[in-house]
Amino acid sequence: MPRVLLSASFPQEERGVLFEPYDGAHIADACVHIARALLRGGATLVFGAHPTISPLILAVAGELNVSRSVVIYQSEWFTGSVPDDTLRLVERDYGTIHWTPARGSREASLGLMRHHMFKDLRAAVFVGGMEGIVEEFRLAREARVEAFLVTGPGGATRHLDEADAGMPGVRVLDGAKYPSIAAQVATALALRAAPDADPDVDA
Q1: H or E stretch at 127
Q2: Which of 176, 137, 181, 184 is CA-nearest to residue 156?
Q3: Each residue of 145-193: pLDDT tens digit?
Q4: Which residue of 50, 54, 101, 148 could cross-link 86, Cys pair, CB 3.0 to 4.6 Å?
């Protein structure tokens, strides 16, 4: 089962201004369709348990009734503050949590977690986001992990497109037809039963 990272978050508050324009509804729609395509195709979905993304992954995992198909990376820096939806992924046997050691600061702890998260990845899909997306894309390039930039929802991923489109191993997937985009990712990764795009549910 190939391990595929979903690197995504919703830009928020003052920090989000730096990554405008973005559309929260489109970020959610893209994440749902990509998660569905990956899990339906037999991939292991890896993500960093961002609290805005965990509810979406929980909903898709429940819809497909997958078993241990999600790997959640979490730093011990956040012990005691893990969102309920992240814990439910484990409680319902949809996934497992991989804990990484805390370091002297939040930033150092997240940096260590991300280095662990990039081990043995087949690919990474980027949607929306802020500074963390930029850092995870840098790690993808260093690890020579195939990167898919879903730029339609905006955010940091759209900013990556401006600088990195055309780089080897980087595929830019623009537009708002997220079922079709998810199908392209699944097909590119040769996942089984890659879903067909359904024009009736395109955003």
Answers
A1: strand 123-128
A2: 137
A3: 999 999 999 999 998 876 676 678 899 999 999 999 999 999 999 997 5
A4: 54
**C-beta separation of 181 from 37 below 8 A:** no
d(CA 11, CA 149): 16
Non-local (6+) Cβ contacts of 78 within 8 A are 109
Side-by-side strand order, sheet with 123-128: 95-100, 70-75, 44-47, 3-9, 123-128, 146-150, 170-173
3-194: CATH topology = Rossmann fold (3.40.50)
Phi-psi region at 102: left, alpha or beta (left = phi > 0; alpha = psi -120 to 50): beta
Tokens linked to 98: 């991989």
Mean pLDDT of the residues in the chain: 90
194 secondary structure, DSSP code: P
Nearest to 147 by CA among 166, 164, 129, 125: 125
Phi-psi region of 173 (alpha: psi -120 to 50; beta: other; left: phi over 0): beta
| List of the chain residues with pLDDT < 70 | 162-163, 165-166, 193-203
